[in-house]
Write a structure and sequence with these properties.
alpha+beta; GMP Synthetase, Chain A, domain 3; 2 domains; 3-stranded mixed sheet; 5 helices; 39% helix
């Protein structure tokens, strides 16, 4: 009995497989880094995140809040984070340009809440309590 005619979609799939070769899971190769001797200084896309668990002060967390706020705003030079120690907790006062407040707060406060969540997790890991206030 002769083969039934193939639909256009089946023919297209066969053509794609012939051009691309068999489908393989090559995700393990996509995320491998080049050996250290092949990467020159300044070429790496990876960013080293400092370990904040060894420090007692909240400065790395303040820098994290400042970094996120600068990335969100149109005027990153106007971003500043003041640190106030309040006994058993630290309060960060985030100041941004008036035009950028909406970007930092977000719709229904979602962006601000996300920043606070990141800060809370990092502070808990460090064993401190930190509050973020947006001025």
């Amino acid at each position: 009995m002769p083969d039934s005619p193939k639909s256009d979609a089946e023919e297209q799939i066969e053509q794609d497989e012939q051009l691309d070769g068999p489908e393989e899971d090559d995700t393990s190769e996509a995320y491998t880094d080049a050996p250290a001797d092949e990467v020159e200084d300044g070429e790496s896309d990876l960013v080293a995140i400092p370990d904040i668990s060894d420090t007692d002060d909240a400065t790395p967390l303040r820098e994290m809040v400042e970094y996120v706020a600068r990335a969100l705003t149109s005027n990153p030079d106007a971003v500043s984070v003041a640190e106030e120690d309040d006994g058993n907790r630290t309060v960060f006062h985030l100041s941004v340009d008036e035009k950028d407040k909406g970007k930092v707060i977000g719709r229904d406060g979602r962006v601000a809440q996300s920043i606070r969540s990141l800060l809370r997790v990092a502070a808990t890991k460090q064993g401190t309590r930190i509050t973020l206030e947006i001025d």
